[in-house]
Design goal:
Bound molecules: adenosine-5'-diphosphate, magnesium ion
CATH topology of the largest domain: Rossmann fold
Distance between the termini: 39 Å
Strand content: 15-25%
C-alpha cells in the first residue's frame, strides 16, 4: 500500500466505522456545531453542564479534546467454556437469575446473577450494588468484564453493560479512562463522546496535507477520534504522535516566525572589531579565559559586527565565569564610541555588578554609572545626566535602566543577567524600550540556570544559544549534606569550626513567598536568635530585600571585607554574590526551595581556594522534596540537576515556564517527545524558508491557528 492509501485507510475504514464493533446505537442525535454547549447532548441539563465546567468542558469542541488519561485493554473476549482460572476477560451472555444476598458482615451485600452462553454457565458477582438486583432481569443480554475465579463458577465483575444499549463501549477493545468528577463518571463521559463521534470529521486540519503525507501522519479529525476510541495500540500511538507533532510544530513556527520578524524589523549598529580597550582589560585579569569563555566571546563578537540585532542567550552554570564575557561584550560598544548597559533582576545583584565592574575596569578609564529605583533624587539625576550626555560608557542597574525617562546618548549593547525569569513578551518589551531612533541594541541574555536542550528549544526557541560548560580551573565541588533536625546541633558545631578557621558562612532563612516583609522579619529574628545562641561568639549580620540600598551595600561590603562572619539572609543572595572566603551555605527548610534555587544558593560558596560545604536543613514532607535533596547531595552538575528537575516536576512548572508566556503543552512531554521536538523544529524552519509569511493558501489555516494559540501571549503574533 502506498503511504497515501495507508492514510486514507486509517481515515475511512479503521476509524469512522470500526467494522469489528457492533454499532447498534439507536441515537437520533444529530450533531450540531462544535461551538455548541454540552446541553445539546442527550441527558445533559444545566446542572450537569455546570459540573462539566469543572473539567474545563463548556462546548462540544472541549469534549473532543478531553483526552483519556489511558485506555483499559478489554480486547480479550471469551466464551464461558474457554475461561481460564484467574483470567480477566469479557464475556457476552444471557441473564438467567438474579439474587440479592445479605452477608454476615454488616456493610457487605452481594448481587449474584447466573449467566449462560452456548458453552457454559457462570455466576457473576457484584458487591454493594443493590440496585442491580432490580435493574437486571432474566433474558437480558449482558456484556461483562471480569476476573474468572473458578471455584463454583464465580466471575468477579469489573465492568458490565447491557447489550443493545451502547454495545461494547465500556467492555470491548481499548476503553478510554477519563479524568472525572463525582457526578460525571467515566461511563457518562464515554457516552457523551460516543454521541459526538460524527463531529470529529468536522475538525479542520491546520497542517498542510503535503506535510502530513511526507511525515506519514494521519489527518487531525482521525487522530482526534483515535485518541478516544483507538482500534489498536498502534493506532493510538500514531494518533498521539500526530497531535504531539502538531503542538510542538505550531510552537516552533511561532517562535521562529517571531525571530524572523524581529530580525527583519529591527536594526542595530554594526560594531568594529575588538581593539585596544579589550586587550588592556584582558591583561588586567588575574587569569586567562577558559576555552569555553573564548569560544562564546568569539561567537558574540561575530554577532556584534553585523547590523542584525544580536539576540543571544548565554547559559553557564553558577561560577562558570559569565561576568567576564559580559564585560568583554559591553566593552565592544565602548570601543566603538557607544554605550553599553548591564541589567540585573535585583538591587543586590545590580549593586554587586556595579562594584565589580568599577573594580575590574579601574585601570581602563571606562566610566561606569549606576541606576536603580532606590537611588536618592540627586544621585539619580547625576546618573541620568551621565547616561544622556554619553559621559557614562557603561550603565549598570535594575529594570530602572529601561524606564521611560532614561535616555542614552547611544546605547549599542545590552546585557541582561539572570534572564531566565523572563519570557518572549518581556524580551520584546525590552527591545521596544531600549530602541531609540530606530536603533535596537544588541542583546545578550545570561542565565545560570542550566536548561535541558529540549526545554531551551521551547523557552528560548527565538534565541541563539551559547553555553559555557567548563568551570574555571581549580574548582572543588561543594560537599553537600542533607541535615535532619536531629543533627542540627552537630551541624552548628561544624560551622563554628569553619568560622574559627577564618572562613565565613551564609544562613538562608525559609522561603516566604507571600511577603517580602515577613521574610525580612524572619531574617531579623533568626539573626537575633543566633547572636544569643549558636553564634554568640561571632559577628552576625543581616541582608534582605527590604533594606534600603545603602544599607544593603554596606552589609555586602562588611561581609566581603570579612568584618562580619555570618550573613543571615534570603534568596536575595541567590545570584551574583561573590565572596571567595565564604565556605558554608546553610539553608533552613531547604525542602521548600526548588532544585534550581538550591543550586544557585550553593553556587555562592566554593568560589575560592578553600573546600566548601552546603548544609541543607530539612525534614522533608514529600517524596519530591526527598528526591530534590538527594539530587543536590549526589551531583554538582547544574545540567544534570536540570534534567532531574524536569523529571521530578514535569516541564509545566519548570523554571517558571508558566510565567514565560507560552501556554502549557497539553500533550507533548519534553522528557519523552524529544525526537518529535527536533522534527518539529526542523520542519518549522523548512516551512518558513519556503513561505516566510505563511501566505500560501495551504498554509492559511496554520497561520490562523498560530495567531489563535499564541496571539494572546506574544502580541505581535496576532498580526501575522
Ligand atoms: P557566573 O557565571 O556565576 O556569573 P562569575 O562571572 O561571577 O560567574 O565568575 C565566578 C568567579 O570565577 C569569579 O570570581 C571570577 O573572577 C572567576 N573566574 C571567571 N573566569 C575565570 C577563569 N577563566 N579562570 C579563573 N577564574 C575565573
Ligand atoms: Mg553571575
Amino acid at each position: 500500500m502506498t503511504q497515501a492509501r495507508c492514510l486514507r485507510h486509517f481515515a475511512r475504514s479503521s476509524l469512522l466505522t470500526p467494522a469489528d464493533l457492533p454499532r447498534t446505537s439507536k441515537s437520533t442525535f444529530n450533531p450540531p456545531a462544535l461551538g455548541d454547549p454540552l446541553t445539546v447532548l442527550k441527558g445533559v441539563g444545566p446542572a450537569l453542564a455546570r459540573e462539566a465546567g469543572r473539567l474545563g468542558l463548556a462546548t462540544l469542541a472541549d469534549l473532543l479534546s478531553h483526552f483519556p488519561r489511558r485506555h483499559e485493554d478489554f480486547s480479550s473476549s471469551r466464551e464461558i467454556g474457554q475461561l481460564r482460572l484467574g483470567e480477566e476477560a469479557t464475556v457476552a451472555a444471557t441473564v438467567e437469575r438474579v439474587t440479592l444476598q445479605r452477608t454476615r458482615r454488616p456493610n457487605l451485600r452481594v448481587v449474584k446473577a447466573t449467566l449462560r452462553d452456548d458453552t457454559g454457565i457462570l455466576e457473576a458477582v457484584w458487591f454493594n450494588q443493590d440496585y442491580l438486583a432490580d435493574q437486571l432481569a432474566p433474558g437480558d443480554r449482558l456484556l461483562v468484564r471480569g476476573r474468572y475465579e473458578g471455584k463454583g463458577g464465580n466471575f468477579r465483575i469489573i465492568s458490565h453493560e447491557l447489550l443493545g444499549d451502547s454495545a461494547g463501549l465500556h467492555t470491548t477493545g481499548l476503553v478510554p479512562v477519563y479524568p472525572t468528577t463525582e457526578k460525571i463518571s467515566v461511563k457518562r463521559l464515554r457516552g457523551w463522546l460516543d454521541q459526538v463521534r460524527p463531529l470529529f470529521s468536522r475538525l479542520a486540519d491546520p497542517l498542510p496535507s503535503g506535510l502530513l503525507l511526507e511525515l506519514g501522519l494521519p489527518r487531525r479529525a482521525d487522530a482526534m477520534l483515535a485518541m478516544h476510541f483507538p482500534r489498536s495500540a498502534a493506532e493510538y500511538a500514531l494518533a498521539r504522535r500526530r497531535l504531539v507533532f502538531e503542538e510542538l510544530f505550531l510552537m516552533q513556527l511561532a517562535l521562529l516566525a517571531y525571530r524572523r520578524h524581529y530580525e527583519r524589523e529591527r536594526r542595530s549598529v554594526a560594531l568594529g572589531p575588538a581593539g585596544e580597550l579589550s586587550r588592556r582589560f584582558r591583561e588586567t585579569l588575574p587569569f586567562s579565559l577558559t576555552a569555553d569563555q573564548e569560544a562564546v566571546a568569539a561567537g558574540i563578537g561575530t554577532d556584534l559586527e553585523g547590523d542584525r540585532p544580536m539576540q543571544r542567550l548565554l547559559q553557564g552554570d553558577v561560577g562558570s565565569g559569565k561576568t567576564v564575557v559580559a564585560v568583554l561584550t559591553l566593552l565592544r560598544a565602548v570601543e566603538s564610541g557607544r554605550q553599553g548597559a548591564l541589567m540585573a533582576p535585583t538591587e543586590v545583584l545590580a549593586e554587586q555588578h556595579f562594584l565589580n565592574l568599577k573594580r575590574m575596569l579601574a585601570g581602563t578609564g571606562v566610566k561606569v554609572a549606576f541606576l536603580s529605583s532606590r537611588l536618592g533624587a540627586k544621585e539619580r539625576e547625576g546618573a541620568l545626566a551621565a547616561m544622556e550626555s554619553g559621559e557614562a560608557d557603561i550603565a549598570v542597574g535594575t529594570h530602572a535602566l529601561i524606564q521611560e525617562d532614561v535616555v542614552f546618548a547611544e546605547l549599542a549593547v545590552v546585557v541582561v543577567d539572570e534572564q531566565h525569569r523572563f519570557g518572549v513578551q518581556q524580551r520584546e518589551d525590552l527591545a521596544d524600550k531600549a530602541t531609540r531612533d530606530g536603533i535596537t541594541p544588541h542583546t545578550l541574555h545570561m542565565t545560570a540556570t542550566p536548561i535541558p536542550r529540549t526545554l531551551a528549544l521551547t523557552l528560548y526557541g527565538d534565541l541563539e544559544v551559547s553555553t559555557i560548560r567548563q568551570m574555571p580551573p581549580g574548582r572543588k565541588p561543594v560537599r553537600t549534606w542533607h541535615v535532619p533536625e536531629a543533627k542540627r546541633a552537630g551541624a552548628y558545631g561544624f560551622i563554628r569550626e569553619q568560622l574559627d578557621a577564618g572562613r565565613q558562612c551564609y544562613v538562608v532563612c525559609p522561603l516566604i513567598e507571600e511577603s517580602e516583609k515577613l521574610e525580612a522579619r524572619a531574617v531579623e529574628a533568626e539573626a537575633a536568635r543566633l547572636r544569643e545562641g549558636e553564634f554568640r561568639e561571632y559577628r552576625v549580620d543581616v541582608l534582605h530585600g527590604q533594606m534600603p540600598a545603602q544599607q544593603k551595600q554596606e552589609a555586602m561590603r562588611r561581609f566581603a571585607d570579612g568584618e562580619t562572619q555570618v550573613l543571615v539572609t534570603t534568596t536575595v543572595i541567590e545570584v551574583g554574590v561573590d565572596v571567595p572566603n565564604a565556605t558554608v551555605m546553610m539553608v533552613e527548610e531547604a525542602d521548600r526551595f526548588g532544585l534550581a534555587q538550591l543550586h544557585q544558593l550553593r553556587g555562592r560558596v566554593g568560589r575560592g581556594e578553600h573546600e566548601s560545604f552546603c548544609l541543607l536543613f530539612a525534614d522533608p514532607g514529600s517524596e519530591a522534596a526527598v528526591r530534590r535533596l538527594g539530587a543536590m547531595a549526589s551531583t554538582a552538575d547544574g545540567f544534570a540537576l536540570a534534567d532531574i528537575d524536569l523529571e521530578i516536576r514535569g516541564e509545566g512548572q519548570l523554571f517558571g515556564l508558566r510565567q514565560s508566556g507560552f501556554p502549557d503543552l497539553k500533550l507533548a512531554r519534553l522528557t519523552r517527545d524529544q525526537d518529535a521536538l527536533k522534527l518539529a523544529r526542523r520542519e518549522a524552519g523548512k516551512l518558513l524558508a519556503a513561505d516566510p509569511d505563511l501566505a500560501r493558501l495551504e498554509d492559511t489555516l496554520l497561520r490562523e491557528e498560530i495567531a489563535r494559540r499564541f496571539g494572546d501571549t506574544v502580541e505581535w503574533l496576532r498580526r501575522i
